[in-house]
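Bumping with the actual sequence this time:
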Amino acid sequence: MTNELKVGFIGLGNVGAKLSGSLLRNGVDLSVHDLNGDFVQAFVAKGARAGGSAAAMMRDCDVVITCLPSPAASDVVMQEMLPEVTKGKVWMEMSTTDEAEVRRLGAEVIERGGTAVECPVSGGCHRADTGNISIFAGCDRPTFERILPLLTLMGRRVLHTGEIGTASILKVMTNYLATANLLTLSEAMVTMKAAGLDMATTYEAIKISSGTSFTHETESQLILSGARDVNFTMDLVLKDIGLFQTIAERNNVPLELSPEVIRIMKDGQQRYGDRAQSDRIIERLEEATGHKVLADGFPTDLIDDEPEEPGYEVVINRTSAR
């Protein structure tokens, strides 16, 4: 099925280039588009076609995937594509976006006879590069089954979350959790440094304990090596945790930690710049204490050493407890 489809991919940034690369690597008939012409030409050199424009891609392709940096960017691209949406066309939104906005745009696609799917990813750029990232998919069940073969080329674990909008809600929730964990790890490691503990030993203690996490086993390594480049910038973090706060406010949940997480990340952004890497947030405490959290033997880049394998649907266990 995937070899028969003409697929367009719009947005060849940090994540988009890796996801679209998985499609191309697996033999998908792929056209690409990005405002950066150099990104497009790099894909053309690998065998993709230049899509020309968002409108042309919706006209010429069966499926168009968008992976863009903000809800506003997605809206601009969608307004260009909408006149070309006809019966049978599929729009797959892989950006991390606002659930109300993806529902609005999805309704416009459906109104014109097309199909809309939101499928944000989670797990880091290094896993997107190898097709081992996780994907949340929000859409009706028949649509999910139709596009699952494409999703399993880009991701290892694919979860059908329910109707459109649900995947975006879950995605920003996971990014909020990862950000809060980054802040607690920063506090923990600076405190251990101040207490005189060895940083490599501290890393291993956390890793084998109840305090470990995906964030620790990835970002802590980049902090300790001094690289501090996880391919995720503070402006994107603030967008995502801001979306999570908005969901809470819409549903009348009086969050206490979330506003403080936003405040700390905003302070980091003011200190280090709009596009500073998110794991530099530890430097606020390093500067306040005079302690530098570094250790030998840690990587400067994250590499996914899990072999690429066909993806699969994650089946939810709904068996009643006995």
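The tokens above came from a reply further down the thread. The longest helix spans residues 166-194.
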